[in-house]
Amino acid sequence: MDTRRTVTVDLPETLLLALGRAARAAGCSPSDFLRAVLRGALDRSPARLRSEEEEILRAVHLSADWVELQRRLRSAGFVLRRAPEGALAIHSWPIERPLLPLGALGLGEPDLTLRFGNRFPTDAPRGPGHPLAARCDRAA
Is residue 104 in a domain? Predict the structure, then answer.
């Protein structure tokens, strides 16, 4: 995990206001949005590939709720699941294999619960005849 440092950036007021609007539209803080934009700009180099940790953290920082987080994670080849001991864990997708606990990235379920305004959705039944199965698959 990278160590974070506080930096000061001199921005014109119009750019600062635009940053605030863009962050609100993305459902995240201006700092999270700016980090994601900087990562994206710096990662455009063909010699640099984003690490799995960066992909997961980017998905978290840009998501406004649990459904969007799952959608972003799946597009990057991951999914969030409840581990047998009860904690949340990152799994590979579409072939689900546990990769690492969410806590290993410095993220906790309580933090995300506060951020998204509700608790992690219970694992929906996936039986083919269950009425929620198709709806849950479409949402994610």
Answer: yes
90 pLDDT band (50/70/90 cuts)? Answer: very high
* pTM of this structure: 0.54
Residue 86 has pLDDT above 70, yes or no: yes
Handedness of CA 132, 77, 117, 82 (dihedral sign): positive
Is 84 inside a domain boundary?
Answer: yes
For residue 40, tell me if it sits in a domain: yes
Domain assignment of residue 105, yes or no? yes
Cis peptide bond N-terminal to 98, omega within 30 = no
| Integer angstrom CA distances of residue 34 from 24, 28, 38, 86 | 12, 10, 6, 33
Q: What is the mean pLDDT of the chain?
A: 79
Cβ(76)–Cβ(55) below 8 Å: yes
**What is the number of domains present in the chain?**
1
pLDDT digits over 56-70, tens only?
Answer: 999 999 999 999 999
Cα–Cα dist 83/86, whole Å: 5
Give the other-Cβ count within 10 Å of 124's Cβ. Answer: 14
Q: Find out whether 21 and 70 touch, Cβ atoms under 8 Å.
A: no
